[in-house]
Structures are given as C-alpha cells and as structure tokens.
Write a structure and sequence with these properties.
Dihydrodipicolinate Reductase, domain 2; nine-stranded mixed beta sheet; binds (3R,4R)-3,4-dihydroxy-4-(hydroxymethyl)oxolan-2-one; six-stranded parallel beta sheet; binds nicotinamide-adenine-dinucleotide; about 350 residues
Length: about 350
C-alpha cells in the first residue's frame, strides 16, 4: 500500500485533532467523512476540504474506496462501527474507551481477527513525548529493575465545557482519563495481576466519580499506584500532564510538572527537558496530547504499510480495558480483583 486512504466517522470535538494529524502523516489521506450531525459534518468537511460526506456509516462503507476507517465517535457506537468495518474487511482504528463493557471489547477483537483486519485502539497517551522518554530511560537500564511506581494525573481543568457528556455518565474519570493512566502503568511496568481501587465524587455538578486511587500488582512483582483527579485545584494547573515516579534497584526516575525528567543513579542526578513539540495546528495546554495523536496515527500508517501488530492493538487494549472494569468492580466491592481471570 503506497498512498493510504482513510475514512473518519465522528466529526466532533476531538476528531479535529485527528484530521489535522492525518494531514501531517505522509502519503495518507482522509477521503471520506461521516457524522449524523449535519453541522459537524459541514464544519469538518469544509475545514479540511473533504468532498465525500455521509450521515450514515453503512452507506459510506457500502460506497467503499478507502483502506482504513478512523472511528472518532463516543463509546456507545464503537462496537457497531468496528463490527461494520470487520464485515467490510476494512482495517479500523477505534477511539478510547474501546467499548462499554469488556464483553463488547472482546467481541470487537474477535470480529476483526475473524475478518483478518488490523484493529488499533486510539490509546495515544503512551505515545506522549515525556512518557516515551521515561520508557527509553528504563529500557537503557538507567535505574536497574523498577520495583515501585506512581502514575499521577491530578487537575482542576474544566473538561466539561468541551466534552459536556463527561458530566452526564454514571462513570467518569476512570473510564475517560484513568484509562490512559492505567495504560501508561502497563506500558511502563508491564501487565497487571491484581487491582484494588477507591473512588469518590467531589464535584456535585457531575454524575460520575472524579477522583480515583488504584493499587496495581504487576506480573513482574512491581507495585504501582495510579491516582487520578479532576477535583484538584493547584497553583499551576498541570493539565494534561501525567506525572511519573519510579524507584528501581539502581536509581530513580521522576517525571515532574513542567515536563522535567530527572534520573538519579550511580552517575549522579541528571535533569532533562522532555517537553512535547508545539505542532503547527496545536495549542497549549493540549499540545502534549495533540503531538501524541500525530505519533499514534503515524505508527498506524507505518504498520498498515509494513505489517506487524500496533502497540495499542485491540488485543493489547483488552488488558488495559480490563483494568478499568476491575477498578469499578473493586471500588464497589471494596475487595481486590484478579485481572487474569477477566481476560
Ligand atoms: P463528540 O460528542 O464531540 O463527537 C462525537 C461525534 O460523533 C459527534 O459529532 C456525533 O454526532 C458523532 N457520532 C456519534 N455516533 C455516530 C454514528 N453512529 N455515526 C456517525 N456519527 C456519529 O465527542 P468527542 O469529545 O470528540 O469524543 C469522541 C471520542 O474521543 C470519545 O470516545 C472520547 O473519549 C475520545 N477522546 C479521546 C481523547 C484522546 O486523547 N485519545 C481526547 C478526547 C476525547
Ligand atoms: O477525554 C479525555 C481524554 O481522553 O484526554 C483528556 C480528555 O479530553 C478529558 O479528560
């Protein structure tokens, strides 16, 4: 496949980032878009000069003429749209959260496997420049074997103005944001065997939980804490930075606010600036996320051309999604949840 042709479904708040990023991915073009809201369809179609516009995804798949579909709708439509892509043997990217339930997510992975088409979840946070820098330091053996970690996202940023649906669901921060933090914990310290979680809602204007504290046992024996909050008012707002602490047998890594990476080991302490780039179409403070959107889409195009499973394939994401379900289960029961039994 030389020039890749894609179609995008869901022209909402976040899809604009995905459309910008596609224009930057070499030899890749979005040739058709779909949204059931005519206003969003027109806005995005006009902004990016896309002529083929559909209000019905089935009609778009019927007309064909593209190599992959980028599903940027909210979670309720993910299963139906991924299964539609599989039925048409079209490779698919699906936004997070992958599905409403782990049962749905497993069915989506099975449908794409049976159709022989690649499926990637748009789980972009592990692609952020600072997270990649942490992973590189670990891989280089900078701190020996990590035995403890903390992955922290604490903010008071108003996410509800851009994404009003986040205030309306029974579930909020774990399903929406913690899903990324849990994925980063897996990416850095490996798969998880057991999980314990506590949640609470601080903001009275929303339905779901906006604070969660999660304890993870990793397969390799490491222990970590994932703590997320949208009820934390700080002097300098850190949105959307994930802060990381890692203790290893030979040293420590600290990724702190302001994209500062500090590595301490037998050679002493060295600090690095691991700030994301401000892409031409990006704006602060979203630029960290926006850069990772470009990175994951570039990764997808490379794998679609050259073969090989994507870093956040559907199959990989089941292991992150299981942590989300387990966190809600643990918060409700008070007990620990066995992750392997869920997969
Ligand atoms: P949104 O509501 O602004 O946009 C969704 C769009 O999809 C709407 O325009 C809606 O009309 C359209 N749509 C829904 N179902 C459809 C269907 N069956 N056919 C055609 N169009 C349909 O939502 P958003 O804030 O853009 O979020 C979209 C997804 O992106 C969510 O799952 C959200 O969690 C995710 N998201 C991811 C990141 C990230 O960093 N990965 C950041 C923000 C949002
Ligand atoms: O929807 C969320 C996401 O995926 O990243 C940040 C966000 O936009 C709000 O929590």
């Amino acid at each position: 496949m030389a020039g890749l042709r894609g179609a995008l479904i869901g022209c909402g708040f976040f899809a604009v980032n995905q459309m910008h990023a596609w224009t930057d991915v070499p030899d890749t073009e979005i040739v058709a878009i779909c949204d059931r809201d005519p206003e969003r369809l027109k806005l995005v179609g006009d902004q990016f000069g896309i002529e083929r516009r559909y209000s019905d995804a089935a009609e778009m798949f019927g007309d064909g003429g593209f190599d992959f579909v980028d599903i940027a709708t909210t979670v309720h439509s993910h299963r139906a749209l991924v299964e539609m892509a599989a039925a048409h043997r079209i490779a698919a990217i699906c936004q997070k959260p992958f599905a409403k339930t782990l049962t749905d997510a497993k069915a989506m992975v099975a449908a794409c496997k049976a159709a022989g088409v690649p499926l990637m979840v748009h789980e972009n946070f592990r692609w952020q420049t600072p997270i990649q820098a942490v992973r590189k330091a670990l891989d280089a053996g900078a701190i020996g074997t990590p035995f403890w970690g903390r992955f922290s996202f604490r903010s008071g940023f108003d996410v509800f103005s851009g994404q009003p649906y986040l205030a309306e669901g029974e579930r909020f921060i774990i399903e929406d944001l913690g899903i990324h933090t849990l994925d980063i914990a897996r990416y850095i310290l490996g798969d998880v065997t057991r999980l314990t979680a506590r949640t609470r809602r601080v903001n009275p204007k929303i339905k779901g939980e906006d604070v969660a504290t999660i304890l993870l046992d990793h397969e390799n024996g490491a222990t970590s804490i994932v703590d997320v909050s949208y009820a934390t008012k700080l002097g300098t707002e850190p949105f959307p930075e994930t802060l990381v602490e890692l203790d290893g047998t030979d040293g420590t890594i600290r990724l702190s606010q302001g994209y500062r990476l500090e590595i301490t080991n037998a050679d002493g302490t060295t600090a690095y600036d691991v700030s994301p780039q401000l892409l031409s179409w990006a704006s602060r403070p979203w630029h960290n996320i926006q850069e990772s959107v470009f990175a994951i889409q570039q990764h997808w195009a490379e794998r679609l051309r050259n073969g090989g499973e994507t870093s956040t394939s559907g199959a990989d994401n089941l292991k992150t999604f299981a942590l989300v379900e387990a966190a809600y289960e643990s918060a409700a029961s008070g007990g620990a949840v066995d992750i392997e039994a869920m997969l």
